[in-house]
Amino acid sequence: MDRDIPTYSLLLLIAFVLIPLSISYFYSLGLKKDIIWSTIRGTAQLFLIGLVLTYLFDLPPFIGIPIMLSVMITVATFHARKKGKELPYVTLALFAGLVTIELVVLSMWLGFGMISFTAEEVIPMSGMVIGNSMVAMGLALERLKNEFEQNRGQLLAALSLGATPKQAAHLSIKTTLNAALMPNIDQLKTIGLVQLPGMMTGLILGGVSPLVAIKYQLVISISIFSSVSISAIFISMMMYRFFFNEHMQLLKLEDIKKSANGS
Q1: How many domains would you assign to the chain?
Q2: Residues 210, 94 within the same domain
Q3: Do 80 and 163 reside in the same domain of the chain?
Q4: What is the pLDDT confidence band of residue 263, given thresholds at 50, 70 and 90?
Q5: pTM above 0.85, yes or no
Q6: Which of 35, 130, 204, 248 suits 107 as a labelling partner, its CA being 20 to 30 A distant?
Q7: CA separation (Å) from 237 to 5, 116, 129, 176?
C-alpha cells in the first residue's frame, strides 16, 4: 500500500478522542488532562520519531542501530523505574535486564537468519520487545509492592514460623508474576482469532503475502512473550530481596526508601 493518508484525515481521527474526553468529564473521572496530554504527546512523539528514523535509516547500520537501541532502552528504563523508585538499585536492574534481553533476542534473530542487520528491520522489532518488556517490568514492580504491603501479616507469620525470606515471599512473587504475564498469555491465546497483530497487519497493508506476514508475526509474538516472561521474573527475583534485611526481618516500603536514600 503506497497511498499516503491525507493530513486532514488524521486530524479528524484525532478529534475522535473527544468521545473518551467527554465521558471522563461527564463521570468526573479526573482523566481530562491525562487524555489531552497523552494524545498531544503521543502524536508529537510519533512525528518526531518518524523524522529521527528517516535520518537513522540513512546511517550505516553499526552506527544508527546502536544509537536508537540505546535511546529506547534508556527511556524504557526510566519509565519503568517510576513503578518501583522506592527500591534500591532498581534503575540498574531494569537497565541490565533490558540490555540482556535485547542482546539475547537480537542474537537469535540474526543467528537464525530471521532478520537482517538493517535499521529498517532491527529497530521496529526491537522496539516491540523492549516496549513490552518495559510494561511487564513496571507491572511486576507495582504488583510486588502491593503484595508485600497487603500481605504483610501473612509474611510476618511465615517468618515467625521459621520460613526463609524466599519461602515467605513465594506466594507474593507467584501472584506478581501471574498479574504481569497474564495479559501477554491472553493475547497469545487469541492471536489471529480476535485480532490481527500489528506487525502482520502492517506487512499485509504493505503488500506482503499473508503467509510471509504470519511468519514474521510468529517471530515477534514468541519473542515478545519470552522476553516479557523473563523480564518479569528477573525484576521480581531481584527486587523482592530488598523487602527483607540481613536479619530476615520484613521491612516496610517507607523503610526501604529511607534506607536507599541514606545509602
Answers
A1: 2
A2: yes
A3: yes
A4: very low
A5: no
A6: 204
A7: 46, 34, 20, 11
